[in-house]
Target: K Homology domain-containing protein
Amino acid sequence: MQSGEASCSMEVEKVIDETSLPAKPKFEPLKAHEMSDGRVQFRKVSVPPHRYSPLKKAWMDIYTPIYEQMKIDIRMNLKGRKVELKTRSDTPDVSNLQKCADFVHAFMLGFDVIDAIALLRLDELYVDSFEIKDVKTLRGEHLSRAIGRLSGKGGKTKFAIENATKTRIVIADTKIHILGSFQNIKIARDSLCSLILGSPAGKVYSKLRQVTARLVERF
Model:
């Protein structure tokens, strides 16, 4: 009886013929204009007056990678004083538009084309901006001395922080812009804040060496 019950409870496996199944569908990745229902996407970047001449000189260096490599249309609107970007039908990725806008914006902030173009090639790069007054309220000669401490003699201090943290720094009057990865920006910003608060350059250098050595050990 037990053997009979066991045979009844046994499940019968059905052999499925794979040839009878329908073919697995293959979907091509959507293009940029298809993601937005065929609508063209735009970005506009304002051009400050002091960046007109540099933009005119470096226009082809900016235009070539955006138009040929990223497949994004770009033009200068002289009336609106803006650089206009828009997607094309052959734009491979919708994120290319924002990358190009970040690249142009970084150039407008004062970064060189050679440095700013890294925003097109690497995903983990950002631009962080802050003002000296965000760290400490300074006026008159105190503010001038703080800006002098940030740059150093002949830009020595700024270059030292850039090389140690693998970032690029632009000091435009009281505004400071940093281009780099999230972690490196944090290290560079901490060093710059220490200088603004009055720390001597030597102390900042030694702290930078310790932090960068720790980063090398971690990775």
The radius of gyration is 28 Å. The mean pLDDT is 84.
